[in-house]
Amino acid sequence: MSRIQLALNVANLESSIAFYSGLFGVEPHKRRPGYANFAVVDPPLKLVLIEVDEDVRGHGTAGALNHLGVEVAEVAEVEAQAARLSAAGMATFDEKDTTCCYALQDKVWVQDPAGAPWEIYTVKDDNPSNATPSGKESA
To answer: How many domains does the chain have?
Structure first.
């Protein structure tokens, strides 16, 4: 099983959690300071909220997108997608055993023609002892 990931910058985490909980009818799967994610079953979506300063976030759609992704079930799927993307001539960046979104992950990154970052990733440990928000959250 795979699902699309949408990582959004938000200026007010609590009001955004309340909004998206109402919109999708689920509570966050994980909450940390300045961070929350939702594992939405229908539609299949991993929604990530990353709190940033209001000046960074802006209003409306400007500043809303942090990054996009596809979550897959296994490391082998990440490796297969990385090989496929490279064979298609796309520049890729691999991250193995990286701590991101308060989870241990393997991933491969590409950028669309306008520079929007996409990751294909799998979660190896959803709650590692050294969990940090490192990764694209600072973008």
So the answer is: 1
